[in-house]
What does this fold into?
Amino acid sequence: MRQKQNSRSSSKSNTAVLFNRYVWLVDTIYRAGRISFEEINAQWERSSLNDTGEELPLKTFHNHKNAIQQMFDINIECDRRDGYLYYIEHAEDMERGGVRTWLLNTFAVNHLINESHHLKRRILFEEIPSGQRFLTQIIEAMRDNLTLELTYQSFWNNTASTFEVAPYCVKVFRQRWYVVARSLSDERLRVYALDRIQEFRTTENAFTLPEDFDPEAYFADSFGVTVDEDCSVERVRVRVQGIQRQYIRTLPLHASQKEVETTEDVSVFEFHLRPTLDFQQELLTHAVNAEGDIEVLEPQWLREHMKVIGEDLYHNHQNV
It folds into this structure.
């Protein structure tokens, strides 16, 4: 029994070592843009993953390259016409984000921190508490196409309810994890926050993920995780003054954002989305930071609604 346990432990350790090597190799080539095998080998000799300082055999390099293609769907190509330089095929796809970029960035940063132990206390991360309890099990259920039984306490209800759902995808937004799932009671897609799950179990009931379900398309017209089909997609134009323009430029509020007008001091940003409550709250946040230098131009109903909110806030504070 002890030999079996030692064998399993050794297998897990070897897997972790290989995985770290794969991430290191992709990160090294990606940051270099184009790099020769000799340069890769020189960096490998200096890496903290290389305890003995040995060279990277060419055969091992190609084995790693093939494993990376299978594991991450990332192709490492060689340009033989330019001195046998290796590069990431379609690297621009990684720059657009997605799970591959998130995984690689996470492990690359983790590797860098492990290399520089004295920096650990100087690198601070945001905690996402909701991902600690249920995220792994939900992803496993998605992988195996098994339904979940949730006991869920919504912020809008006084009591919790228990029901069965088919998990389609997960999304992180503002330090909270959410799962998009089809409710088996009414066949509707809903978004559930993991931090509102009280109890949870994976059932033995299988489900079939619709071939036409596209997670990105599902959220395409939404600001965050609120998908309200009763709120139509509209053109929203927002006038922004001063330094606040830089914050919106460098961290767009939505994928549809365009800066359609600009002068020395004023810009107009245009969005095509559902102007739901969470988007309105985001505009208010920027308005506070900009000391009021944000104005909704259209649609007219949203302009009037934001005006009412501003007036209510003003009167509430006048009465203090």
Summary: Residues 2-32 form the longest helix (31 residues).
